Amino acid sequence: MGLIAYVGRADIRRQWRSYAGTALLLALAAGLSLFALAGARRTQSSYPRLLRAGNASTLAVINPGYFDPGLNASIAALPQVVQSRTYVSFEVKVLVDGVPDFSQALEATGTIDGRFFDQDRFAPTQGRRPDSAKPDEVAVNELAARRYGYHMGQRLELGTYGVDQPLDAAFVANPTRPKLTTSATIVGIGVFPDEVLQDEGDRTTRMLLTPAFSRAAIEHVTYGVQGLVLAHGDADIAAVQDQVNRDAPPGTIAYRVTSVDVLHALRAVRPLSLALAVFGVLVGLAGLVLVSQALARAIRHQRDVRAGLRSMGARQRAIAAAGMAGPVVAIVSGAALAVVLAVALSPLMPAGPVRKVEAHPGFDLDATVMGVGALAIVLTLLVAIVVVSLLEAPERVAGRAHAWRRPSWIITRATGASMGPAAVAGLRFALEPGGGPSAAPTRSVMVGAAVAVTALVGSVTFGASFTNLVDHPRLYGWSGDAVLSAGTGYGNIPLDGARAILDHDPAVQAWSGTYFGVDQIDGLDTPLLGMDPGAALLPVVLRGRNLEQAKEIVLGAATASTLGKDIDDRVTLSGAGAPHTLRVVGIASFPAIGAVHTAHTALGNGALVEHQLVPGYDADITGQMHGDFGPRAIFVRFRPGTNAAAELAHLKETTAPLDVVGGLDVLPVQRPAEITTSSSVANLPTVLAGTLGLAALTSLALALGAAVRRRRHELAVLMAIGFTGRQLAGTVSWLATTTIAVGLLVGVPVGVVVGRSLWRLFAGTLDVVDTPGVPVLALAAIAGVAIILANAIAAVPGRWARRVGTAGLLRAE
Question: What is the pLDDT of residue 807?
Answer without folding.
Answer: 47
